[in-house]
Write a structure and sequence with these properties.
With 406 residues, the chain is α/β, with parallel strands linked by helices. The chain has two domains: 2-147 and 289-362, Rossmann fold, CATH 3.40.50.2300; 150-281 and 376-400, Response regulator (Rossmann fold, 3-Layer(aba) Sandwich), CATH 3.40.50.2300. 42% of the residues lie in helices and 15% in strands. It has helices at residues 2-19, 43-62, 82-95, 107-120, 132-136, 149-162, 176-192, 211-214, 216-219, 233-243, 266-270, 291-304, 310-329, 334-343, and strands spanning 29-35, 71-77, 100-102, 124-125, 142-143, 167-173, 197-203, 224-228, 253-256, 278-281, 346-347, 352-353, 372-375, 387-391. A seven-stranded mixed sheet has the order 7-6-8-9-10-13-14, sandwiched between helices. Helix 6 crosses helix 7. The longest helix is centred in the first third of the chain and has 20 residues, at 43-62.
């Protein structure tokens, strides 16, 4: 009986050591990053998140690391699939003993991953998952310094109302992000533009041909078509709308609400279909940026030979926040990091803020995250040359908008 009791105690201790993230006090501090590195996930997003992570890791390590220890990043490929994301987070926490997990950039995946982080009570910093449902869970381990559906839907509704449009058709991917944003946009339009007819059409994010959904719009085109889809589906939709003469045209605006205009592969995939597109954005070179944000931008431009996009900054901020929380807590203990993230005022790559503790979509969220509205007016136009027509807190300058001649 005594031997059995000792065996049970030993087994319990072994199990505890497996599920509790611990790191040697003098070794590197390990942070886990779960991203899509292969299809069907958004690989272009995953690549940019990794680039931003690597830039800030080097900046931190070159300055001596965190608490005198170097940062080490462990990556897992979630393929943009919730089940893969769940497994990736399990591996990062139980196998790699990471102090925190970040990198999430597709909402359905984030919703799966935060369940694991919540169960293990490990901090999870959401890089780019917009679904309000992530915040509404109210998990104390989950922090949201990125954009959220309510923010972008409110901004889009304000733009549509300012443009006095009579009818709008939305194409949304059939994911938590797409369906959620389309729903919230409809709710805002009821308040801000009650006379605007609104129709939402769900499309398969893995689809290759959206012509059956596009063709009916030829006979009776709306005044605006809105995209709430990620690439590659978004690119396919844009090309088919253009090929069928639906949008953008003199009759119909095309408005992207998914933040795809500054992706590095945008122009090579859309060409003429991207000209005259109106875009919601989270970064523009004319936006003010703290010194460390300017440093991240300069390094990226030197390495990639192109302008940065929002994901570079969001990814850098995600890792920097974890590092600052560890410094404030003077510990890599999960509970201490979570408390520091919750309490601290953070000034990072994109600005200064404190996480809201209000329940619902604003829980542990950067509520006033800055955004812009701009328009593309030339093919292959870099972001710095686009027409900025609105920044956070300012009205839309509709006189700057231009349409095709036909």
């Amino acid at each position: 009986m005594r031997q059995l009791r000792f065996a049970m105690i030993a087994a319990a201790a072994a199990m505890f050591s497996i599920i509790t993230p611990t790191q040697a006090a003098d070794g590197p501090i390990v942070i886990g990053v779960s991203i899509a590195q292969s299809p069907p996930g958004s690989v272009v997003q995953g690549t940019q998140v990794k680039e931003g992570v690597e830039i800030i890791k080097k900046i931190i390590n070159d300055k001596g690391g965190v608490l005198g220890r170097q940062l080490n990043i462990v990556y897992e490929d979630n393929q943009g699939i919730p089940e893969k994301g769940r497994a990736a987070t399990e591996k990062l926490i139980s196998r790699d003993k990471v102090v925190a997990v970040t990198g999430g950039h597709q909402s359905s995946v984030c919703l799966a991953e935060i369940e694991v982080a919540h169960r293990y009570k490990v901090p999870y910093v959401n890089t780019n998952c917009w679904s309000d449902d992530i915040r509404a869970k109210g998990y104390p381990e989950v922090f949201n310094p990125g954009n959220y559906n309510t923010r972008v839907s409110a901004a889009m509704a304000e733009t549509i109302a300012a443009m006095k449009l009579k009818d709008v058709v939305v194409f949304a991917e059939n994911t938590d992000y797409g369906l959620g944003q389309a729903k919230v946009l409809g709710e805002f339009l009821k308040k801000l533009a009650p006379d605007t007819a609104y129709k939402s059409i769900a499309l398969d994010r893995a689809g290759k041909d959206f012509t059956p959904a596009v063709l009916p719009l030829r006979a009776n085109p709306p005044q605006m078509v809105v995209n709430i889809m990620l690439p590659p589906a978004a690119y396919i939709l844009m090309n088919q709308l253009y090929e069928q003469g639906v949008a953008p045209t003199a009759k119909t605006w095309f408005y992207d609400g998914a933040g795809i205009a500054d992706y590095p592969d945008f122009w090579q995939n859309v060409k003429e279909a991207g000209k005259y597109m109106l875009a919601f954005g989270l970064y523009h070179p004319q936006m003010p940026m703290p010194e460390i944000g300017q440093q991240v931008a300069k390094i990226y431009e030197q390495q990639a030979k192109r302008e940065p996009n929002r994901l570079i900054f969001q990814a850098a901020d995600s890792v920097l926040q974890i590092a600052r929380a560890i410094e404030n807590a003077k510990s890599t203990d999960s509970a201490a990091i979570i408390k520091a993230l919750k309490d601290m005022e953070y000034e990072g790559v994109r600005g200064k803020f404190r996480f809201s503790q209000d329940p619902g979509y604003s829980y542990q969220q950067w509520v006033d995250i800055p955004y812009v509205t701009y328009q593309l007016t030339e093919i292959n136009q870099p972001l710095s040359k686009t027409t900025l027509i609105q920044t956070s807190g300012q009205g839309l300058q509709t006189d700057k908008l231009v349409k095709p001649a036909k």
